[in-house]
Design goal:
The complex is a heterodimer of chains A (about 280) and B (about 130). Chain A is mostly helical and about 280 residues long. Helices cover about 75% and strands about 5% of the residues of chain A. Chain A is built from eleven helices and two strands; from the N terminus they run H-H-H-H-H-H-E-E-H-H-H-H-H. Chain A is globular, with a radius of gyration of 18 Å. In chain B, helix 1 packs antiparallel against helix 3 and helix 3 packs antiparallel against helix 4.
Chain lengths: ~280, ~130
């Protein structure tokens, strides 16, 4: 295969990954890693490098819209970024000592968990009385809805912060945004309304990914020939996905994709277990 | 339409707009650089066989330091230009932290100036900490 053919196929694959990632809410990076490793037999380290870049591009592109609408809780994001960046740096350091097969198995497990998280029930309720810590840290805020601004408060700040550290470690180790864990911390633990937790999670993914990306760049994980089609493809796919999302409610699509992704996850675990990475 | 009865400070909203713009331009500029580098890469090497990506060669692949990347891009080397776009992409969220810091300074929010500086410090440690290993 020539570089031109490889690039064009990868570009198309990355576009689909970005589209599916955006429609399911899983993120394009998560879909691009199995694509690169299982289909193209690329070393998982190159896949991780390219996926991290795709995560940064996606997060920054989408966050620009949400931030302008005033849904994102910037203070909350900034506060929790202390946890995710420390975690991400730790994850990138641990990655050197972790066998690639272990990384593949862990990746499969997180992918299964993420698929489950996207189809579970979401927290729509706004909490009216938060904890003392949330008040002290000025984390309570408002967000716009069709019926005007809704005020919300939050609780379990410490527990949320801890889960965020873990999300950071996994992000640094696996090269993904780990949006599912971030949403778990904010949505289920801190009781933040779903719309705020997803947009704030998205907002944080760029910074979290950048924290480990600088380490991976220096280690040679980001090969130009792979990074170029992956970044452009995923970004274009995610853009198409976000346009489609405003017109259709992909509930059925979401279930189908999550089921498909679960099979991919199992194949990653199977291959990792049989030392194929 | 912004809601008039919003409880957020006006400065908060200005900073939100600014951060939104900065993120968007960052991604657009980075993608354009990657695209230009990518097209040159395909023109120069498109007909060659795909490198052996199934074996990881790490830093031997080149362009793993800012110095190398800048020199490569300056010499109009395709991979150098792509990696320059990669650097621009990674810098985008880091710049966003710096913009937030400015916002909190304008608001005189001491707590969040401290928190933002902490995040920046972690990023700097990651960049200059020699964590290459």
């Amino acid at each position: 295969m020539t570089i031109l053919t490889f690039t064009l196929i990868l570009l198309a694959g990355a576009y689909l990954a970005g589209l599916v990632g955006s429609l399911t809410g899983l993120g394009g990076g998560v879909v691009v890693i199995p694509l690169l490793t299982l289909v193209f037999h690329v070393d998982i380290r190159y896949a991780i490098g390219a996926a991290l870049l795709a995560a940064i591009a996606n997060s920054s592109g989408a966050a620009s819209a949400y931030v302008k609408e005033g849904i994102t809780n910037i203070r909350l994001g900034m506060f929790l970024e202390i946890a995710t960046t420390i975690g991400a740096v730790a994850g990138a350091v641990i990655a050197v000592y972790t066998p690639t097969n272990t990384i593949a198995i862990l990746f499969g497990a997180i992918l299964l968990f993420s698929a489950y998280m996207t189809i579970r029930k979401k927290n729509q309720e706004a909490l009216t009385t938060g904890s003392k810590a949330s008040l002290k840290l000025k984390l309570n805020s408002t967000y716009p809805t069709k019926d005007g601004e809704i005020a919300y408060q939050l609780k379990n700040v410490g527990a949320g912060f801890s889960i965020m550290t873990l999300a950071g470690v996994l992000s640094g180790l696996l090269g993904i945004g780990s949006g599912a864990l971030k949403v778990l911390a904010m949505d289920s633990t801190m009781h933040i309304p779903f719309k705020v937790s997803t947009t704030t999670s998205n907002f944080m993914i760029g910074v979290t990914a950048a924290a480990s990306a600088v380490i991976y760049l220096q280690r040679g994980y980001m090969d130009a020939g792979i990074a170029f089609p992956v970044v452009l493809g995923v970004l274009a796919g995610a853009f198409t996905g976000s346009k489609l999302l405003t017109r259709l409610d992909p509930k059925v699509l979401k279930y189908i994709f999550c089921l498909a992704i679960s099979f991919v996850a199992l194949e990653m675990i199977y291959n990792g277990y049989h030392h194929q990475f | 339409m912004k809601n008039i009865i919003s409880k957020k400070a006006p400065a908060d909203q200005d900073i939100e707009q600014l951060i939104g713009l900065q993120l968007r331009f960052g991604v657009i500029i980075a993608s354009l650089i990657v695209l230009i580098g990518g097209l040159i890469y395909l023109k120069q090497f498109g007909a060659l066989a795909v490198p052996h990506y199934h074996s990881f060669i790490g830093t031997k692949g080149g362009y793993t330091s800012l110095d190398e990347i800048f020199k490569g891009a300056y010499a109009a080397n395709a991979k150098g230009i792509i990696e320059l776009g990669v650097v621009a992409l990674i810098i985008t969220p880091i710049l966003r932290i710096a913009f937030s810091l400015v916002g909190f300074i304008i608001e005189k929010d001491k707590l969040y100036i401290g928190i933002t500086l902490t995040v920046l410090a972690i990023m700097m440690a990651s960049i200059f900490g020699g964590l290459k290993i």
